[in-house]
Specification:
Structural class: mainly alpha
Shape: flat
Strand content: under 5%
Distance between the termini: 85 Å
Largest sheet: none
Number of strands: 0
Helix content: over 70%
Number of helices: 42
Length: 684
């Protein structure tokens, strides 16, 4: 068999040599050589055609099975292909099941922190199913735990080759790049994830998580840049100068000195630390060890020393999240929290850190919230203390659910409301209490309890117009929260409230909040609209909106106008006759990117189009063709909310119904077909 194969191979190679020689002779300049080559080529072609050039020349001994294949019928061939495809599909299915089992085992190992074991499970799963993107990202997460960031990035890249829109892979890759200090590249990954999330209409939670990643990479990049600048600062620091940052820190570590020595050193640090570079230099120069390992600083109860430390902490925490975190975690601060009495400087520090989400949450986790809240309430009620600091801190903390939970108890809420009745409370503290109540009333259960306190409404209505600036702003903010839903208490008070607002606050600078508050009242109490019209609210809105082109102000004003024109004929006519106001509203409908504003603006025109002055405005100022064209184009905008598109469609429908000339133009521009197509997903 071997000799036959060798003989066939030799013949085949010989044939190749013959062909090569003939091709060379055919390209010769000698006509005789060309003639001979042509004759030889004819002979060779005849020989090849006899064997059919079936590629069996190398191994004729295996021709039996090959001939069987050649003689196979088309049906049998297709049947064999189908069988092969089924077998492959079944194998893939079985491999997927096995890979899923390995994924589950890997996940369990990961949660038990058995990272090497988890990697082995995921790797075995990938051998069975090489295109399993989730296994790649799961293994990448294990690599992240082991700080093998480059391996994790490789796995994310493989996952993205399989599924280019895999958000999880972008997130993990971005975090790895962030840990490698490649912040710009990391941000690119998060931005790509965000674009995919928006395009695929992912949930709010996913988009919020991606936004947090973008913010985190920006924070980490800023932190890295600050630390690099701080290192350069420390390298260039002249150590021959006694009172510089490094030398002062060293001197503070000298043990067994009088308290005044440490107070003076910390006060000197407060002078030396004056910008973000020196704040960061304190941290990377192990400055926080003072608050963690220095026995005198940690354990001493000297009030002056504590004041100096808190003063330094306030300086260190300015626009620096990392310093804030280290201040909250240090031993000095945690020891201080066990005391029952806080100094003013300590309160100032706590107020400062409670303005930031992350540090506020860290602080709340460290305290026993119920007893701490009661402590703050007692200070607010005590004339001897500087109660404003306790009120400010409690107001800042009230954003968090753990604090709101305390005031879900109706009795505790009533006690807080009672503070507003006290004649001993100064205006500044009352202002902060209003802010505190506003934060609390953002929670539905607390708002429900507060809304049913007639006494609270009476206090607030009485205070309208009595105070100015911040107090009035906070008062309106609280009333907006309280009027967010209908209540039997407000039903007996809304007339008095409207009249008080319209008489006492005409010269107020807080128009946006006034319009929002009146809009809340008008939404639930139709009779309130008659009071608003009687007090010429539309002329007031028109005047304010033309003076102040601010989108939030316009949004609040247009919402109120939509409510005032819904069924009140006088209100409709007043708006329809005000061409300057109509121009402003129409311009907002066309130019704004806010669905709520566009929807309410369209609603106004839908309400007033029955009045001839509104149609004359559209005809004379814009033209029938342009008006119809712009509205039809707007109703087709996919980014516009369904409610807004519905309101635009209602405006168009009422417009063409009210005037034959608008109807003719609507037909000319194929309006029926456009509306039908644009509103398929909108319930009319």
């Amino acid at each position: 068999m071997a000799d036959e194969s060798k003989e066939d191979l030799d013949k085949f190679l010989s044939k190749i040599d013959d062909i090569h020689r003939i091709v060379q002779n055919l390209s010769s300049n000698d006509t005789n050589e060309v003639s001979k080559a042509m004759e030889q080529s004819d002979v060779l072609l005849k020989e090849i055609s006899k064997t059919g050039f079936d590629r069996t020349i190398i191994n004729k001994s295996s021709s039996e099975s090959t001939q069987q294949q050649q003689q196979m019928s088309p049906n049998a061939f297709m049947s064999a292909l189908e069988k092969d495809a089924q077998e492959r599909s079944e194998n893939r299915r079985k491999n997927k099941i096995l890979a899923d089992e390995l994924k589950t085992k890997g996940n369990n190992a990961f949660h038990q922190q058995l990272y090497n074991q988890a990697i082995d499970y995921y790797t075995e799963g990938l051998k069975l199913k090489k295109d399993y993107d989730i296994l790649y990202t799961n293994r990448a997460q294990v690599y992240v735990k082991q700080e093998r960031y480059k391996d994790a990035i490789d796995d994310c890249d493989w996952a993205l080759k399989i599924t280019p829109t895999f958000i999880k892979a972008y997130i993990i890759k971005g975090k790895c790049l962030m840990n490698l200090n490649e912040y710009d590249c990391a941000k690119e990954q998060f931005i790509q994830a965000e674009e995919i999330a928006i395009k695929n209409f992912e949930s709010i939670n996913i988009r919020r998580m991606i936004e947090e990643c973008i913010q985190e990479v920006q924070r980490q990049h800023e932190k890295y840049q600050r630390e690099e600048s701080a290192r350069i600062f420390l390298l260039n620091e002249d150590l021959s100068i006694p009172m510089n940052l490094t030398n002062t820190l060293k001197k503070l570590y000298i043990d067994k000195q009088p308290i005044i020595y440490y107070i003076g050193g910390i006060d000197l640090l407060c002078q030396l630390i004056k910008d973000e570079t020196t704040r960061t230099a304190f941290r990377i120069n192990n400055g926080f060890n003072l608050f963690n390992s220095h026995s005198i600083i940690i354990e001493n109860d000297n009030e002056n020393l504590s004041e100096s430390i808190f003063n330094l902490m306030i300086i260190l925490c300015q626009d620096d999240d990392e310093n804030t975190k280290q201040c909250l975690e240090c031993k000095f601060f945690n020891n201080y929290l066990t005391k029952n009495i806080y100094s003013i400087k300590a309160f100032q520090f706590l107020i400062e850190i409670s303005l930031k989400n992350q540090s506020r949450l860290i602080f709340i986790e460290k305290i026993q919230s119920n007893s701490f809240i009661q402590y703050l309430i007692n200070i607010i009620n005590d004339k001897k203390f500087n109660r404003i600091y306790a009120a400010k801190l409690l107001s800042n903390l009230a954003i968090e659910s753990k604090i709101k939970q305390y005031f879900s108890n109706k009795d505790e809420l009533i006690k807080l409301i009672a503070i507003l009745k006290s004649s001993s409370i100064d205006e500044e503290t009352r202002t902060v209490i209003l802010s505190l109540l506003t934060n609390l009333c953002s929670e539905k259960h607390i708002r429900f309890c507060a809304v049913n306190q007639t006494e609270l409404f009476q206090i607030l209505i009485e205070d309208l117009g009595q105070y100015e600036n911040e107090y009035e702003l906070n008062l309106l903010g609280l009333l907006i929260n309280l009027t967010n839903e209908q209540s039997s208490t407000l039903e007996g008070l809304y007339k008095n409230l409207c009249e008080k607002i319209l008489t006492k606050l005409k010269n107020s600078s807080h128009h946006q909040r006034i319009f929002t508050l009146l809009g809340n009242i008008a939404m639930y109490y139709e009779q309130a609209i008659n009071i608003l019209i009687e007090y010429k609210i539309i002329s007031w809105i028109s005047q304010i909106l033309q003076q102040n082109i601010n989108e939030e102000m316009i949004r609040a004003g247009i919402r109120l106008l939509a409510l005032c024109t819904q069924s009140n004929v006088q209100g409709q006519q007043t708006v329809a006759d005000d061409t300057k106001l109509l121009s402003l509203i129409y311009e907002q409908i066309i130019k704004s990117q806010n669905s709520l504003l566009i929807g309410n603006g369209s609603l106004i025109f839908g309400h007033i189009i029955i009045h001839s002055s509104a149609r004359i405005f559209l005809r004379n100022n814009l033209g029938i063709e342009k008006t119809i064209s712009q509205m039809l184009k707007l109703v087709e905008e996919s980014w516009l909310s369904k409610a807004a598109r519905k309101n635009v469609a209602i405006f168009i429908t009422k417009m063409v119904k009210a005037d034959e000339s608008f109807l003719q133009e609507f037909r000319k521009q194929h309006g029926t077909e456009i509306l039908h197509s644009a509103l398929k997903d909108v319930e009319l």
